[in-house]
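> tool_call: predict_assembly(chains=two)
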Amino acid sequence: MQKLIECVPNFSEGRNKKVIDKIFSAAKKVKGVKVFELEFDKSHNRCLFTIVGSPENVLASVFESMRVATKLIDMNSHLGEHPRIGATDVIPFVPISGVSMKECVDLSKKLGKKVARELKIPVYLYEDSATRKDRVNLADVRKGEYEGLKREIKVNPDRKPDYGASSLHPTAGAVVIGARKYLVAYNVNLDTKDISIAKKIAGKIREKDGGLKAVKALGFNVGGYAQVSMNLVDFEKTNFDDTFREIEKWTKKFNVKIKSSEIYGMIPLEAVVRAIRYTFKANSFKSDQILEKKLFE
Amino acid sequence: MQKLIECVPNFSEGRNKKVIDKIFSAAKKVKGVKVFELEFDKSHNRCLFTIVGSPENVLASVFESMRVATKLIDMNSHLGEHPRIGATDVIPFVPISGVSMKECVDLSKKLGKKVARELKIPVYLYEDSATRKDRVNLADVRKGEYEGLKREIKVNPDRKPDYGASSLHPTAGAVVIGARKYLVAYNVNLDTKDISIAKKIAGKIREKDGGLKAVKALGFNVGGYAQVSMNLVDFEKTNFDDTFREIEKWTKKFNVKIKSSEIYGMIPLEAVVRAIRYTFKANSFKSDQILEKKLFE
Protein backbone atom coordinates (compact mmCIF):
# COMPACT_ATOMS: atom_id res chain seq x y z
CA MET A 1 0.00 0.00 0.00
CA GLN A 2 1.21 3.47 -0.92
CA LYS A 3 2.13 5.63 2.09
CA LEU A 4 -0.07 8.68 2.11
CA ILE A 5 -0.58 11.53 4.54
CA GLU A 6 -2.39 14.83 4.55
CA CYS A 7 -1.19 18.15 5.94
CA VAL A 8 -3.28 21.33 6.34
CA PRO A 9 -0.90 24.20 7.19
CA ASN A 10 -2.46 27.46 8.48
CA PHE A 11 -0.75 30.79 7.85
CA SER A 12 -1.40 34.26 9.30
CA GLU A 13 -2.15 35.99 5.99
CA GLY A 14 -5.66 36.31 4.54
CA ARG A 15 -5.59 39.72 2.88
CA ASN A 16 -2.53 40.14 0.66
CA LYS A 17 -3.22 37.78 -2.27
CA LYS A 18 0.33 38.09 -3.59
CA VAL A 19 1.77 36.81 -0.33
CA ILE A 20 -0.86 34.05 -0.12
CA ASP A 21 -0.04 32.90 -3.66
CA LYS A 22 3.70 32.86 -2.98
CA ILE A 23 3.20 30.62 0.07
CA PHE A 24 0.82 28.34 -1.88
CA SER A 25 3.20 28.17 -4.88
CA ALA A 26 6.16 27.26 -2.70
CA ALA A 27 4.28 24.20 -1.43
CA LYS A 28 3.34 23.22 -4.99
CA LYS A 29 6.92 23.37 -6.26
CA VAL A 30 7.84 20.15 -4.46
CA LYS A 31 7.36 17.11 -6.68
CA GLY A 32 5.17 14.15 -5.76
CA VAL A 33 2.54 16.05 -3.78
CA LYS A 34 -0.88 17.43 -4.62
CA VAL A 35 -1.63 20.86 -3.13
CA PHE A 36 -5.22 22.07 -3.29
CA GLU A 37 -8.20 23.75 -1.64
CA LEU A 38 -6.57 27.08 -0.87
CA GLU A 39 -8.85 29.04 1.44
CA PHE A 40 -8.32 32.50 2.88
CA ASP A 41 -10.38 34.82 4.99
CA LYS A 42 -9.97 38.58 5.35
CA SER A 43 -11.52 38.99 8.79
CA HIS A 44 -9.52 36.06 10.17
CA ASN A 45 -6.51 37.32 8.16
CA ARG A 46 -5.54 33.71 7.69
CA CYS A 47 -5.13 31.13 4.90
CA LEU A 48 -4.84 27.38 4.71
CA PHE A 49 -4.57 24.65 2.09
CA THR A 50 -4.23 20.88 1.83
CA ILE A 51 -1.11 18.91 0.88
CA VAL A 52 -1.38 15.18 0.12
CA GLY A 53 1.49 12.80 -0.68
CA SER A 54 4.13 10.56 0.87
CA PRO A 55 5.36 11.61 4.35
CA GLU A 56 8.75 12.80 3.10
CA ASN A 57 7.35 14.78 0.17
CA VAL A 58 4.67 16.41 2.32
CA LEU A 59 7.30 17.43 4.86
CA ALA A 60 9.44 18.99 2.10
CA SER A 61 6.40 20.77 0.63
CA VAL A 62 5.15 22.27 3.88
CA PHE A 63 8.68 23.32 4.85
CA GLU A 64 9.08 25.29 1.61
CA SER A 65 5.78 27.09 2.26
CA MET A 66 6.95 27.87 5.82
CA ARG A 67 10.23 29.27 4.54
CA VAL A 68 8.30 31.76 2.36
CA ALA A 69 5.77 32.62 5.10
CA THR A 70 8.64 33.28 7.51
CA LYS A 71 10.14 35.80 5.08
CA LEU A 72 6.91 37.56 4.05
CA ILE A 73 4.72 37.74 7.17
CA ASP A 74 5.47 40.08 10.06
CA MET A 75 3.47 39.14 13.15
CA ASN A 76 4.17 42.54 14.74
CA SER A 77 1.73 44.17 12.32
CA HIS A 78 -0.72 41.25 12.03
CA LEU A 79 -4.35 41.86 12.97
CA GLY A 80 -7.13 39.28 12.67
CA GLU A 81 -10.01 37.69 14.53
CA HIS A 82 -8.57 34.20 14.65
CA PRO A 83 -6.19 33.22 17.48
CA ARG A 84 -2.57 32.80 16.26
CA ILE A 85 0.99 32.73 17.54
CA GLY A 86 3.01 32.76 14.32
CA ALA A 87 3.40 33.47 10.61
CA THR A 88 2.99 29.75 10.07
CA ASP A 89 0.53 29.12 12.84
CA VAL A 90 -0.41 25.41 12.90
CA ILE A 91 0.74 22.33 11.01
CA PRO A 92 -1.20 19.08 11.51
CA PHE A 93 -0.03 15.82 9.89
CA VAL A 94 -2.83 13.32 9.28
CA PRO A 95 -2.37 9.62 8.33
CA ILE A 96 -4.46 8.69 5.26
CA SER A 97 -3.30 5.25 4.16
CA GLY A 98 -0.42 2.88 4.87
CA VAL A 99 0.93 5.23 7.57
CA SER A 100 0.56 4.81 11.34
CA MET A 101 -0.12 7.60 13.80
CA LYS A 102 3.36 6.88 15.24
CA GLU A 103 4.93 7.68 11.86
CA CYS A 104 3.03 10.97 11.69
CA VAL A 105 4.14 11.85 15.23
CA ASP A 106 7.76 11.11 14.24
CA LEU A 107 7.35 13.24 11.12
CA SER A 108 5.98 16.17 13.13
CA LYS A 109 9.02 15.97 15.42
CA LYS A 110 11.38 15.79 12.46
CA LEU A 111 9.80 18.93 10.99
CA GLY A 112 9.85 20.60 14.41
CA LYS A 113 13.61 20.10 14.78
CA LYS A 114 14.25 21.30 11.22
CA VAL A 115 12.14 24.44 11.72
CA ALA A 116 13.88 25.33 14.98
CA ARG A 117 17.31 24.74 13.46
CA GLU A 118 16.93 26.24 9.99
CA LEU A 119 14.21 28.88 10.39
CA LYS A 120 15.03 29.80 14.02
CA ILE A 121 11.38 29.53 15.04
CA PRO A 122 10.39 27.96 18.40
CA VAL A 123 8.11 24.93 17.99
CA TYR A 124 5.31 23.56 20.21
CA LEU A 125 4.10 19.97 19.68
CA TYR A 126 0.32 19.36 20.00
CA GLU A 127 -2.36 16.66 19.68
CA ASP A 128 -0.88 13.14 19.36
CA SER A 129 2.63 14.66 19.26
CA ALA A 130 2.21 16.61 22.51
CA THR A 131 4.87 16.09 25.18
CA ARG A 132 2.68 17.51 27.96
CA LYS A 133 -1.02 17.18 28.73
CA ASP A 134 -1.51 20.94 28.63
CA ARG A 135 -0.30 21.00 25.02
CA VAL A 136 -2.73 18.45 23.55
CA ASN A 137 -5.36 21.09 22.79
CA LEU A 138 -4.44 23.77 20.31
CA ALA A 139 -6.32 26.46 22.26
CA ASP A 140 -4.11 25.86 25.31
CA VAL A 141 -0.91 26.18 23.26
CA ARG A 142 -2.12 29.44 21.68
CA LYS A 143 -3.16 30.98 25.00
CA GLY A 144 -2.27 34.72 25.04
CA GLU A 145 -1.59 34.58 21.30
CA TYR A 146 1.47 36.10 19.64
CA GLU A 147 1.47 39.21 21.81
CA GLY A 148 1.14 37.34 25.11
CA LEU A 149 3.52 34.52 24.25
CA LYS A 150 6.22 37.00 23.21
CA ARG A 151 6.63 37.92 26.86
CA GLU A 152 5.65 34.61 28.54
CA ILE A 153 7.98 32.33 26.55
CA LYS A 154 10.96 34.07 28.15
CA VAL A 155 9.83 33.87 31.77
CA ASN A 156 7.32 31.00 32.21
CA PRO A 157 8.92 27.48 32.21
CA ASP A 158 5.50 26.00 31.23
CA ARG A 159 5.71 27.88 27.94
CA LYS A 160 9.21 26.65 27.04
CA PRO A 161 8.98 25.35 23.45
CA ASP A 162 9.65 21.69 22.52
CA TYR A 163 12.29 22.79 20.03
CA GLY A 164 14.20 26.03 19.62
CA ALA A 165 15.04 28.95 21.85
CA SER A 166 12.81 30.41 24.57
CA SER A 167 12.14 33.55 22.59
CA LEU A 168 9.93 34.16 19.59
CA HIS A 169 11.31 34.64 16.09
CA PRO A 170 11.38 38.49 15.72
CA THR A 171 8.79 38.49 12.89
CA ALA A 172 7.50 34.91 12.47
CA GLY A 173 6.65 34.20 16.14
CA ALA A 174 6.23 30.51 17.00
CA VAL A 175 4.54 27.49 15.38
CA VAL A 176 2.42 24.57 16.59
CA ILE A 177 3.15 21.22 14.90
CA GLY A 178 1.61 17.82 15.51
CA ALA A 179 -0.15 14.69 14.32
CA ARG A 180 -3.86 14.00 14.55
CA LYS A 181 -6.44 11.66 13.11
CA TYR A 182 -8.50 12.48 10.04
CA LEU A 183 -11.69 14.30 10.88
CA VAL A 184 -14.82 13.30 8.92
CA ALA A 185 -17.61 15.91 8.89
CA TYR A 186 -20.97 14.19 8.53
CA ASN A 187 -24.51 15.58 8.84
CA VAL A 188 -27.83 13.77 9.01
CA ASN A 189 -30.93 15.77 8.09
CA LEU A 190 -34.30 14.84 9.63
CA ASP A 191 -37.71 15.30 8.05
CA THR A 192 -38.89 17.44 10.96
CA LYS A 193 -38.81 21.14 11.77
CA ASP A 194 -38.59 20.28 15.46
CA ILE A 195 -34.95 21.18 16.17
CA SER A 196 -35.25 19.83 19.71
CA ILE A 197 -35.34 16.29 18.27
CA ALA A 198 -31.99 16.85 16.51
CA LYS A 199 -30.58 18.22 19.78
CA LYS A 200 -31.88 15.22 21.72
CA ILE A 201 -30.46 12.72 19.21
CA ALA A 202 -27.11 14.57 19.19
CA GLY A 203 -27.10 14.19 22.97
CA LYS A 204 -27.74 10.45 22.67
CA ILE A 205 -24.97 9.74 20.17
CA ARG A 206 -22.05 11.96 21.22
CA GLU A 207 -19.21 10.41 23.19
CA LYS A 208 -19.18 13.14 25.84
CA ASP A 209 -22.66 12.12 27.00
CA GLY A 210 -22.08 8.37 26.85
CA GLY A 211 -22.82 7.79 23.15
CA LEU A 212 -20.62 6.53 20.32
CA LYS A 213 -16.84 6.64 20.63
CA ALA A 214 -14.99 9.51 18.93
CA VAL A 215 -18.21 11.27 17.93
CA LYS A 216 -18.92 14.97 18.50
CA ALA A 217 -22.50 15.95 17.70
CA LEU A 218 -24.80 18.98 17.85
CA GLY A 219 -28.39 19.61 16.79
CA PHE A 220 -28.96 22.52 14.39
CA ASN A 221 -31.61 24.25 12.37
CA VAL A 222 -30.55 24.09 8.72
CA GLY A 223 -32.95 25.62 6.22
CA GLY A 224 -35.85 25.21 8.60
CA TYR A 225 -35.19 21.50 9.22
CA ALA A 226 -33.52 19.66 12.05
CA GLN A 227 -29.94 18.50 11.45
CA VAL A 228 -27.65 16.31 13.52
CA SER A 229 -24.21 17.70 12.69
CA MET A 230 -21.21 15.51 13.55
CA ASN A 231 -17.45 15.49 13.67
CA LEU A 232 -16.10 11.95 13.58
CA VAL A 233 -12.63 12.33 15.04
CA ASP A 234 -11.61 8.69 14.54
CA PHE A 235 -13.53 6.91 11.76
CA GLU A 236 -11.76 3.64 12.64
CA LYS A 237 -13.70 3.72 15.92
CA THR A 238 -17.00 5.12 14.68
CA ASN A 239 -17.56 5.62 10.96
CA PHE A 240 -20.32 7.60 9.26
CA ASP A 241 -22.38 4.49 8.52
CA ASP A 242 -22.37 3.60 12.24
CA THR A 243 -23.76 7.01 13.15
CA PHE A 244 -26.37 6.76 10.36
CA ARG A 245 -27.69 3.48 11.77
CA GLU A 246 -27.62 4.78 15.35
CA ILE A 247 -29.49 7.95 14.40
CA GLU A 248 -31.98 5.84 12.39
CA LYS A 249 -32.67 3.85 15.55
CA TRP A 250 -33.37 7.05 17.51
CA THR A 251 -35.54 8.59 14.77
CA LYS A 252 -37.91 5.63 15.16
CA LYS A 253 -38.26 6.38 18.88
CA PHE A 254 -38.98 10.04 18.12
CA ASN A 255 -41.32 9.07 15.28
CA VAL A 256 -39.43 11.01 12.59
CA LYS A 257 -37.37 9.93 9.55
CA ILE A 258 -33.96 10.57 8.05
CA LYS A 259 -34.46 12.85 5.04
CA SER A 260 -30.89 12.85 3.78
CA SER A 261 -27.26 12.84 4.89
CA GLU A 262 -24.12 14.59 3.73
CA ILE A 263 -20.45 13.81 3.86
CA TYR A 264 -18.93 17.28 4.11
CA GLY A 265 -15.62 17.95 2.38
CA MET A 266 -13.00 15.30 1.68
CA ILE A 267 -13.00 11.76 3.05
CA PRO A 268 -10.28 9.07 2.93
CA LEU A 269 -11.04 6.11 0.65
CA GLU A 270 -10.60 3.81 3.63
CA ALA A 271 -13.63 5.33 5.41
CA VAL A 272 -15.80 4.64 2.36
CA VAL A 273 -14.46 1.10 2.00
CA ARG A 274 -15.10 0.45 5.71
CA ALA A 275 -18.71 1.61 5.34
CA ILE A 276 -19.25 -0.79 2.40
CA ARG A 277 -17.52 -3.64 4.25
CA TYR A 278 -19.67 -3.30 7.32
CA THR A 279 -23.01 -2.36 5.78
CA PHE A 280 -22.98 -5.23 3.27
CA LYS A 281 -21.17 -7.78 5.45
CA ALA A 282 -18.44 -7.78 2.79
CA ASN A 283 -15.64 -8.55 5.25
CA SER A 284 -13.03 -9.25 2.59
CA PHE A 285 -13.58 -6.02 0.63
CA LYS A 286 -10.39 -3.95 0.37
CA SER A 287 -9.52 -0.58 -1.10
CA ASP A 288 -7.08 -2.42 -3.42
CA GLN A 289 -10.15 -3.66 -5.31
CA ILE A 290 -10.96 -0.10 -6.40
CA LEU A 291 -9.90 0.07 -10.02
CA GLU A 292 -8.79 3.72 -9.93
CA LYS A 293 -6.50 3.01 -6.98
CA LYS A 294 -4.22 1.07 -9.34
CA LEU A 295 -3.40 4.39 -10.98
CA PHE A 296 -1.85 6.09 -8.00
CA GLU A 297 0.26 3.18 -6.79
CA MET B 1 -12.89 14.51 -14.20
CA GLN B 2 -10.03 12.44 -15.58
CA LYS B 3 -10.97 10.28 -18.58
CA LEU B 4 -10.39 6.67 -17.71
CA ILE B 5 -11.12 3.40 -19.46
CA GLU B 6 -10.25 -0.24 -18.95
CA CYS B 7 -9.28 -2.78 -21.58
CA VAL B 8 -8.89 -6.55 -21.04
CA PRO B 9 -7.24 -8.02 -24.14
CA ASN B 10 -7.31 -11.84 -24.54
CA PHE B 11 -4.53 -13.63 -26.43
CA SER B 12 -4.27 -17.21 -27.67
CA GLU B 13 -1.17 -18.16 -25.70
CA GLY B 14 -1.28 -19.71 -22.24
CA ARG B 15 1.68 -22.10 -22.26
CA ASN B 16 4.83 -20.36 -23.52
CA LYS B 17 5.72 -17.96 -20.69
CA LYS B 18 8.33 -16.16 -22.82
CA VAL B 19 5.72 -15.26 -25.43
CA ILE B 20 3.20 -14.27 -22.73
CA ASP B 21 5.76 -11.99 -21.08
CA LYS B 22 6.68 -10.32 -24.37
CA ILE B 23 3.02 -9.50 -25.08
CA PHE B 24 2.53 -8.23 -21.50
CA SER B 25 5.73 -6.15 -21.64
CA ALA B 26 4.76 -4.54 -24.93
CA ALA B 27 1.55 -3.23 -23.34
CA LYS B 28 3.51 -1.92 -20.35
CA LYS B 29 5.98 0.03 -22.46
CA VAL B 30 3.40 2.69 -23.31
CA LYS B 31 3.48 5.59 -20.87
CA GLY B 32 0.47 6.76 -18.87
CA VAL B 33 -1.20 3.38 -18.44
CA LYS B 34 -1.23 0.79 -15.67
CA VAL B 35 -1.05 -2.82 -16.87
CA PHE B 36 -1.78 -5.54 -14.31
CA GLU B 37 -3.46 -8.81 -13.36
CA LEU B 38 -1.82 -10.99 -15.98
CA GLU B 39 -3.60 -14.35 -16.02
CA PHE B 40 -2.84 -17.38 -18.18
CA ASP B 41 -4.22 -20.88 -18.37
CA LYS B 42 -2.54 -23.91 -19.92
CA SER B 43 -5.65 -25.90 -20.77
CA HIS B 44 -7.33 -22.88 -22.30
CA ASN B 45 -3.96 -21.95 -23.86
CA ARG B 46 -4.93 -18.34 -23.37
CA CYS B 47 -3.82 -15.25 -21.44
CA LEU B 48 -5.35 -11.91 -20.53
CA PHE B 49 -4.49 -8.80 -18.56
CA THR B 50 -5.96 -5.42 -17.64
CA ILE B 51 -4.92 -2.02 -19.00
CA VAL B 52 -6.21 1.15 -17.34
CA GLY B 53 -5.60 4.73 -18.47
CA SER B 54 -6.84 7.47 -20.79
CA PRO B 55 -8.58 6.25 -24.00
CA GLU B 56 -5.68 7.23 -26.28
CA ASN B 57 -3.00 5.70 -24.08
CA VAL B 58 -4.94 2.46 -23.63
CA LEU B 59 -5.40 2.22 -27.40
CA ALA B 60 -1.66 2.67 -27.94
CA SER B 61 -0.85 0.12 -25.23
CA VAL B 62 -3.17 -2.60 -26.48
CA PHE B 63 -2.04 -2.04 -30.06
CA GLU B 64 1.61 -2.62 -29.09
CA SER B 65 0.66 -5.90 -27.38
CA MET B 66 -1.30 -6.94 -30.50
CA ARG B 67 1.68 -6.19 -32.71
CA VAL B 68 3.81 -8.62 -30.66
CA ALA B 69 1.05 -11.28 -30.46
CA THR B 70 0.65 -11.09 -34.24
CA LYS B 71 4.34 -11.81 -34.72
CA LEU B 72 4.70 -14.57 -32.12
CA ILE B 73 1.48 -16.61 -32.19
CA ASP B 74 0.63 -18.99 -35.05
CA MET B 75 -3.03 -19.99 -34.95
CA ASN B 76 -2.37 -22.92 -37.33
CA SER B 77 -0.68 -24.80 -34.49
CA HIS B 78 -2.82 -23.47 -31.62
CA LEU B 79 -4.71 -25.96 -29.47
CA GLY B 80 -6.81 -25.09 -26.44
CA GLU B 81 -10.17 -25.63 -24.80
CA HIS B 82 -11.36 -22.06 -25.04
CA PRO B 83 -13.10 -20.85 -28.24
CA ARG B 84 -10.91 -18.44 -30.26
CA ILE B 85 -10.52 -17.00 -33.75
CA GLY B 86 -7.19 -15.18 -33.52
CA ALA B 87 -3.77 -14.59 -31.94
CA THR B 88 -5.29 -11.54 -30.30
CA ASP B 89 -8.76 -12.95 -29.76
CA VAL B 90 -10.95 -10.33 -28.05
CA ILE B 91 -10.49 -6.68 -27.06
CA PRO B 92 -13.19 -5.04 -24.94
CA PHE B 93 -13.02 -1.33 -24.06
CA VAL B 94 -14.86 -0.45 -20.85
CA PRO B 95 -15.71 3.10 -19.65
CA ILE B 96 -14.58 3.70 -16.05
CA SER B 97 -14.91 7.42 -15.40
CA GLY B 98 -15.46 10.60 -17.41
CA VAL B 99 -15.91 8.58 -20.62
CA SER B 100 -19.21 7.75 -22.35
CA MET B 101 -20.06 4.42 -23.98
CA LYS B 102 -20.17 6.31 -27.29
CA GLU B 103 -16.51 7.33 -26.84
CA CYS B 104 -15.55 3.71 -26.15
CA VAL B 105 -17.45 2.56 -29.24
CA ASP B 106 -15.61 5.19 -31.31
CA LEU B 107 -12.30 4.05 -29.81
CA SER B 108 -13.01 0.40 -30.69
CA LYS B 109 -13.69 1.43 -34.29
CA LYS B 110 -10.53 3.51 -34.41
CA LEU B 111 -8.50 0.53 -33.21
CA GLY B 112 -10.36 -1.76 -35.62
CA LYS B 113 -9.39 0.36 -38.63
CA LYS B 114 -5.78 0.64 -37.46
CA VAL B 115 -5.51 -3.14 -36.94
CA ALA B 116 -6.95 -3.91 -40.37
CA ARG B 117 -4.68 -1.35 -42.03
CA GLU B 118 -1.39 -1.87 -40.20
CA LEU B 119 -1.52 -5.50 -39.02
CA LYS B 120 -3.60 -6.84 -41.95
CA ILE B 121 -5.97 -8.64 -39.58
CA PRO B 122 -9.76 -8.71 -40.27
CA VAL B 123 -11.80 -7.16 -37.45
CA TYR B 124 -15.29 -7.95 -36.13
CA LEU B 125 -17.06 -5.41 -33.91
CA TYR B 126 -19.10 -6.82 -30.97
CA GLU B 127 -21.22 -5.78 -27.98
CA ASP B 128 -22.06 -2.04 -28.00
CA SER B 129 -19.86 -1.58 -31.09
CA ALA B 130 -21.66 -4.27 -33.12
CA THR B 131 -22.93 -3.28 -36.57
CA ARG B 132 -25.31 -6.26 -36.79
CA LYS B 133 -27.54 -7.97 -34.23
CA ASP B 134 -25.83 -11.32 -34.82
CA ARG B 135 -22.51 -9.82 -33.74
CA VAL B 136 -23.53 -8.48 -30.34
CA ASN B 137 -22.73 -11.75 -28.57
CA LEU B 138 -19.14 -12.87 -28.63
CA ALA B 139 -20.11 -16.54 -28.98
CA ASP B 140 -21.90 -15.79 -32.26
CA VAL B 141 -18.89 -13.97 -33.69
CA ARG B 142 -16.56 -16.85 -32.75
CA LYS B 143 -18.84 -19.55 -34.21
CA GLY B 144 -16.75 -22.23 -35.95
CA GLU B 145 -13.61 -20.80 -34.32
CA TYR B 146 -10.37 -20.13 -36.21
CA GLU B 147 -10.58 -23.30 -38.27
CA GLY B 148 -14.20 -22.80 -39.36
CA LEU B 149 -13.92 -19.07 -39.95
CA LYS B 150 -10.86 -19.55 -42.18
CA ARG B 151 -13.14 -21.11 -44.81
CA GLU B 152 -16.39 -19.26 -44.09
CA ILE B 153 -15.01 -15.71 -44.15
CA LYS B 154 -14.24 -16.15 -47.85
CA VAL B 155 -17.62 -17.50 -48.92
CA ASN B 156 -20.33 -16.42 -46.44
CA PRO B 157 -21.38 -12.72 -46.74
CA ASP B 158 -22.68 -12.87 -43.13
CA ARG B 159 -19.10 -13.45 -41.95
CA LYS B 160 -17.62 -10.49 -43.86
CA PRO B 161 -15.52 -8.57 -41.32
CA ASP B 162 -16.28 -4.95 -40.31
CA TYR B 163 -12.75 -3.91 -41.26
CA GLY B 164 -10.12 -5.58 -43.43
CA ALA B 165 -10.13 -8.23 -46.15
CA SER B 166 -12.47 -11.25 -46.30
CA SER B 167 -9.67 -13.67 -45.52
CA LEU B 168 -7.89 -14.44 -42.28
CA HIS B 169 -4.38 -13.25 -41.51
CA PRO B 170 -2.24 -16.31 -42.39
CA THR B 171 -1.04 -16.83 -38.79
CA ALA B 172 -2.93 -14.32 -36.57
CA GLY B 173 -6.49 -15.12 -37.78
CA ALA B 174 -9.09 -12.47 -36.92
CA VAL B 175 -9.93 -10.33 -33.89
CA VAL B 176 -13.11 -9.24 -32.10
CA ILE B 177 -13.09 -5.64 -30.82
CA GLY B 178 -15.82 -3.72 -29.05
CA ALA B 179 -17.08 -1.64 -26.16
CA ARG B 180 -19.06 -2.94 -23.22
CA LYS B 181 -20.07 -1.85 -19.74
CA TYR B 182 -18.09 -2.74 -16.64
CA LEU B 183 -19.11 -6.05 -15.14
CA VAL B 184 -19.30 -6.23 -11.34
CA ALA B 185 -19.11 -9.75 -9.88
CA TYR B 186 -20.99 -9.88 -6.58
CA ASN B 187 -21.95 -12.84 -4.39
CA VAL B 188 -24.28 -13.02 -1.41
CA ASN B 189 -23.84 -15.95 0.97
CA LEU B 190 -26.81 -17.25 2.95
CA ASP B 191 -26.71 -18.88 6.39
CA THR B 192 -28.40 -22.02 5.08
CA LYS B 193 -27.18 -25.27 3.53
CA ASP B 194 -30.37 -25.45 1.48
CA ILE B 195 -29.07 -24.59 -1.99
CA SER B 196 -32.60 -24.60 -3.39
CA ILE B 197 -33.24 -21.32 -1.54
CA ALA B 198 -30.28 -19.66 -3.30
CA LYS B 199 -31.58 -20.98 -6.61
CA LYS B 200 -35.08 -19.66 -5.89
CA ILE B 201 -33.78 -16.21 -4.87
CA ALA B 202 -31.55 -16.09 -7.97
CA GLY B 203 -34.67 -16.80 -10.03
CA LYS B 204 -36.50 -13.94 -8.32
CA ILE B 205 -33.80 -11.30 -8.86
CA ARG B 206 -32.37 -12.00 -12.34
CA GLU B 207 -33.55 -9.86 -15.22
CA LYS B 208 -34.27 -12.82 -17.51
CA ASP B 209 -37.03 -14.00 -15.18
CA GLY B 210 -38.52 -10.58 -14.52
CA GLY B 211 -36.23 -9.47 -11.68
CA LEU B 212 -33.79 -6.56 -11.44
CA LYS B 213 -32.46 -4.89 -14.57
CA ALA B 214 -29.01 -5.90 -15.85
CA VAL B 215 -28.64 -8.66 -13.25
CA LYS B 216 -27.57 -12.22 -14.04
CA ALA B 217 -27.88 -14.59 -11.08
CA LEU B 218 -27.43 -18.25 -10.21
CA GLY B 219 -27.71 -20.25 -7.00
CA PHE B 220 -24.67 -22.28 -6.00
CA ASN B 221 -23.28 -24.48 -3.26
CA VAL B 222 -20.12 -22.82 -1.98
CA GLY B 223 -18.36 -24.58 0.88
CA GLY B 224 -21.58 -26.33 1.89
CA TYR B 225 -23.60 -23.10 2.05
CA ALA B 226 -26.05 -21.51 -0.35
CA GLN B 227 -24.72 -18.65 -2.44
CA VAL B 228 -26.48 -16.25 -4.80
CA SER B 229 -23.80 -15.50 -7.39
CA MET B 230 -24.35 -12.46 -9.61
CA ASN B 231 -22.97 -10.63 -12.59
CA LEU B 232 -24.09 -7.02 -12.61
CA VAL B 233 -23.67 -6.01 -16.25
CA ASP B 234 -24.66 -2.36 -15.75
CA PHE B 235 -24.13 -1.07 -12.23
CA GLU B 236 -25.71 2.26 -13.18
CA LYS B 237 -28.99 0.35 -13.55
CA THR B 238 -28.64 -2.09 -10.66
CA ASN B 239 -25.73 -1.77 -8.26
CA PHE B 240 -24.52 -4.30 -5.70
CA ASP B 241 -26.27 -2.52 -2.84
CA ASP B 242 -29.60 -2.79 -4.70
CA THR B 243 -29.19 -6.55 -5.05
CA PHE B 244 -28.18 -6.87 -1.38
CA ARG B 245 -31.39 -5.18 -0.26
CA GLU B 246 -33.52 -7.17 -2.71
CA ILE B 247 -31.97 -10.46 -1.57
CA GLU B 248 -32.42 -9.41 2.06
CA LYS B 249 -36.13 -8.96 1.36
CA TRP B 250 -36.38 -12.49 -0.08
CA THR B 251 -34.35 -14.08 2.73
CA LYS B 252 -37.03 -12.88 5.15
CA LYS B 253 -39.70 -14.68 3.13
CA PHE B 254 -37.60 -17.87 3.10
CA ASN B 255 -36.80 -17.44 6.79
CA VAL B 256 -33.01 -17.39 6.32
CA LYS B 257 -30.37 -14.68 6.75
CA ILE B 258 -27.54 -13.12 4.77
CA LYS B 259 -24.28 -14.43 6.23
CA SER B 260 -21.88 -12.34 4.18
CA SER B 261 -21.31 -10.86 0.73
CA GLU B 262 -18.31 -10.45 -1.53
CA ILE B 263 -17.34 -8.04 -4.25
CA TYR B 264 -15.25 -10.24 -6.51
CA GLY B 265 -12.26 -8.71 -8.30
CA MET B 266 -11.99 -5.05 -9.20
CA ILE B 267 -14.76 -2.47 -9.00
CA PRO B 268 -14.90 1.12 -10.32
CA LEU B 269 -14.86 3.82 -7.63
CA GLU B 270 -18.14 5.14 -9.03
CA ALA B 271 -19.98 1.90 -8.10
CA VAL B 272 -18.79 2.26 -4.50
CA VAL B 273 -19.71 5.94 -4.37
CA ARG B 274 -23.18 5.16 -5.79
CA ALA B 275 -23.74 2.53 -3.10
CA ILE B 276 -22.84 5.05 -0.38
CA ARG B 277 -24.98 7.76 -1.98
CA TYR B 278 -28.07 5.57 -2.14
CA THR B 279 -27.72 3.59 1.07
CA PHE B 280 -27.14 6.67 3.24
CA LYS B 281 -29.37 9.07 1.27
CA ALA B 282 -26.23 11.14 0.66
CA ASN B 283 -27.39 12.46 -2.71
CA SER B 284 -24.66 15.04 -3.06
CA PHE B 285 -21.75 12.64 -2.37
CA LYS B 286 -19.28 12.57 -5.27
CA SER B 287 -16.15 10.59 -6.02
CA ASP B 288 -14.28 13.93 -6.11
CA GLN B 289 -14.63 13.98 -2.32
CA ILE B 290 -12.37 10.93 -2.03
CA LEU B 291 -9.05 12.29 -0.87
CA GLU B 292 -6.90 9.78 -2.76
CA LYS B 293 -8.65 10.66 -6.03
CA LYS B 294 -6.81 14.02 -5.94
CA LEU B 295 -3.62 12.11 -6.54
CA PHE B 296 -4.50 10.61 -9.88
CA GLU B 297 -6.01 13.71 -11.44
